[in-house]
Amino acid sequence: MRSAFAIFAATAFLVAASSGVAFAASPTHEFSGQIARVNSASKTVTVKATEPPIKVMTFSLASDAKITSDAKTTDLAGLKVGQRVVVKYADEGAKHEAVQIDAHARIASAHPAASKPVAKN
Questions:
Q1: Domain count, the chain
Q2: Nearest CA to 84 among 39, 25, 24, 32?
């Protein structure tokens, strides 16, 4: 009985491995906020949370990361400071590796410029 289960488990693993199913080394997490910095040279993006607890996280870009901006595929250069983002990432040792970044339009200012009163004639 045990040997039948072992054979089944080994076969299932081989089928999954040959079909391209990836086995993640660590679970994927999600972090959302506003882009504070994009560094194309080091392939990192820094995101500041917009809701408490306010914290800042820097993500290294995975080699196969998927990046979208307003639902259109882009690359790291397509991300702009101020855009809202949701980053899906995995912890790889001491660094956070982004596997997916979904960016959206910039956040509108909370305090729009006051309009000038219209002079009455």
A1: 1
A2: 32
